[in-house]
# Entry
Amino acid sequence: MADVADIATLSFEQALAELERIVAELESGQAPLERSIEMYERGAALKAHCEERLAAARLRVEKIVVGAQGSAPGVEPAEFN
# Structure
């Protein structure tokens, strides 16, 4: 398993795919205890990375508020329903 430091270079999709593989392997119950602990630690780091990526994306997804003159006086958070 690669070093936790490399997680920062992963895209959200890559990190999520690896996290899903780890969860599947842990759920299988086939890994030795030491390997399971290593996978769990990596999974926790991947989860944190995914949460950070989602938070950053949420901040970037904003709705531009257009004023009467057609200018954009500000932004407001997008609504996801």
Q: What stands out?
A: The chain has a mean pLDDT of 83. Strands lie at 62-65, 74-77. The longest strand covers residues 62-65.
